[in-house]
Write a structure and sequence with these properties.
Blueprint lengths: L1 H13 L17 H18 L9 H12 L8 H13 L8 E2 L2 H9 L8 E6 L2 E7 L11 E5 L2 E2 H9 L10 H8 L3 H10 L4 E7 L5 E7 L7 H11 L6 H12 E6 L4 E6 L8 H14 L4 E5 L8 H9 L11 E4 L13 H11 L1 E2 L5 E2 L1 H5 L13 E6 L6 H9 L5 E5 L8 E4 L4 E3 L6 E3 L3 E4 L15 E2 L4 H5 L4 H22 L1
Parallel strand pairs: 9-10, 10-14, 14-15, 15-20
Antiparallel strand pairs: 1-18, 2-3, 4-5, 4-6, 6-7, 8-9, 11-13, 11-19, 12-13, 16-19, 17-18
Length: 505
């Protein structure tokens, strides 16, 4: 069931392949004049209100990409086909908070329709390397850790280059794009959308001895998998948890603190800075417990943290930082009133927010002066002064990037892992309403504020860089290792040995 939910999430982004089309019919064609009308509104809203439209692209370049998209709308299209046109244009903005979403009608269809065909492989990808992380075909030789070189004659590098054109990211960050494709179910869903769903796939792979082989891989059909059906029936017999238990399970999936009192090491799993998870109380109680238990080493795992409330990320930072800090050197919107405001969700409340909390400056933009001026000080009560290891990766995004960038240069803090998905210099975010296009009802996210974290950071469009790099390897994937955690525990052990040596002298 978990696999099906993940597949559905990926399908919402771009695809309409591999599902039963008998009722709603996402294969229904939309007339070109309706597509063109929606596309015109799509372009005008972005040009009028997106604060980072020309951050990484010149106006001439964006005009070219807009025209390239418009040129594809001469014939009728299905909704998934139209979304792919929009996604390709949006990816050129280089803004990870701007993305295309399906219409609500299409989402309801996906939620209520049984998937009858799935691409069977999940892959871990990096630097033109693709390694099997999961395979729904249990009889296939493509087991975890197998290196895949080609699918249906296309080299992995060619497939990935094509897919990158449809994935939004901050700046020139490719770590985030590789990670998105590595998230379970996403590669297969996007592959099916771009190259089509086939009855079987010709896969070229390399075995553990370095020999090249080819094999045929069948499309996975969950409705025919009696083992899967038996598992589902077994799950249904399990008593349902109470509302209180569900809330606690939901919170524990987002935040959890584990303390090894004998080793004085703690690990904080933090998968979101979002509201509704009781993070303020969690942070306060966690750092109180760290002090009471004499914890010397704190590991904070934000590899899966896509961001959320800046208030929450700022509070966590205050328990760790040794200096005062600002959230942003600049934070502004370029428009308060918009021509097509009727298509933008929560536009009235967003305009009220801008009216009361922003002020138009000499540059013509609406600045949120509180965050541009206000410095936050370290917490005095239960402030943690031990060694901190922050685990980051391509899914570390938005508010998580603000958190990591503020602490990265601190002497007792070590960033371990891979570059964050969010850009270190800044992003376009803060208020992010949905825009619903009137004819197709396709939606896209529209960030309203441009945030520059630190004007002195390199403007290279990259994420926060780790001090200790710990990336994937074929061997680590093959044995299912948590290689970033292994690296961190080795760093802690090495630090302990150095302290003991110094004390001995």
């Amino acid at each position: 069931m978990k696999m099906r939910v993940l597949i559905f999430c990926a399908l919402v982004v771009l695809t309409g392949c591999g599902v039963n089309r008998s009722s709603f019919g996402p294969s229904k064609k939309i007339a070109p004049e309706k597509l063109q009308k929606d596309y015109t509104i799509f372009r005008q809203i972005l040009e009028e209100a997106h604060p980072g439209l020309y951050w990484y692209q010149t106006k001439d370049s964006m005009d070219y990409y807009f025209e390239m998209g418009a040129a594809q709308l001469k014939d009728s299209m299905t909704e998934p086909e139209f979304r792919r046109v929009l996604a390709r244009v949006i990816s050129r903005i280089n803004c990870g908070h701007t993305s295309v979403r399906s219409s609500k009608r299409y989402s309801r269809y996906v939620d209520t329709t049984r998937v009858d065909r799935l691409f069977p492989l999940s892959l871990k990808l990096w630097n033109d390397t693709a390694v099997v992380s999961a395979n729904l075909d249990r009889n296939s030789p493509l087991q975890r850790g197998t290196v895949v070189r080609k699918i249906n004659g296309r080299p992995i590098s060619q497939i990935v280059d094509t897919m990158f054109n449809f994935i939004s990211t901050d700046g020139y960050n490719t770590t985030h794009k590789y990670q998105v494709l590595s998230n379970r179910g996403y590669f297969g869903s996007l592959y099916s959308a771009l190259f089509g769903m086939a009855p079987q796939y010709e896969v070229e792979y390399v075995d553990s001895l370095g020999n090249v082989h080819q094999t045929k891989l069948k499309t996975y059909r969950p409705t025919r998998d009696t083992t899967n059906q038996a598992a589902i029936r077994s799950i249904r017999r399990v008593p349902q948890p109470s509302r209180k238990e569900r809330r606690m399970m939901r919170r524990n999936a987002v935040r959890m603190l584990k303390i090894d009192t004998s080793e004085h090491v703690a690990m904080m799993d933090l998968n979101s800075f979002g509201r509704g998870y009781g993070l303020k109380r969690f942070f306060r109680s966690s750092f109180r417990n760290l002090r009471k238990n004499g914890v010397e080493y704190l590991i904070i795992d934000v590899r899966g943290n896509g961001g959320g409330s800046v208030t929450n990320s700022t509070l966590l930072t205050r328990f760790l930082t040794d200096h005062r800090f600002k959230v942003a050197d600049s934070l502004y919107a370029i428009a308060r009133r918009k021509k097509y405001s009727r298509y933008i969700s929560n536009d009235f409340f967003n305009r009220m927010f801008m009216t009361f909390f922003t002020k138009r400056q000499s540059d013509g933009n609406y600045h949120f002066r509180y965050y541009e001026r206000n410095y936050f000080k370290p917490k005095k009560k239960n402030h943690f002064k031990g060694n901190v290891y922050i685990l980051t990766g391509g899914n570390s995004f938005s508010a998580t990037t603000l958190f990591a960038s503020t602490l990265a240069a601190q002497d007792n803090v070590t960033i371990v892992g891979e570059e964050t998905g969010g850009a270190a210099y800044g992003n376009s975010a803060w208020l992010i309403p949905d825009v619903t296009l009137p004819e197709t009802k396709v939606r896209f996210r529209l960030p309203l504020f441009r945030l520059v974290v630190n004007k002195d950071f390199p403007k290279n469009g990259l994420g926060v860089q780790p001090e200790v790099v710990s990336g994937p390897s074929v061997e680590a994937i093959r044995r299912g290792a948590d290689y970033k955690m292994e690296t961190t525990l080795e760093l802690i052990m090495r630090h302990r040995e150095q302290k003991q040596t110094a004390a001995g002298h």
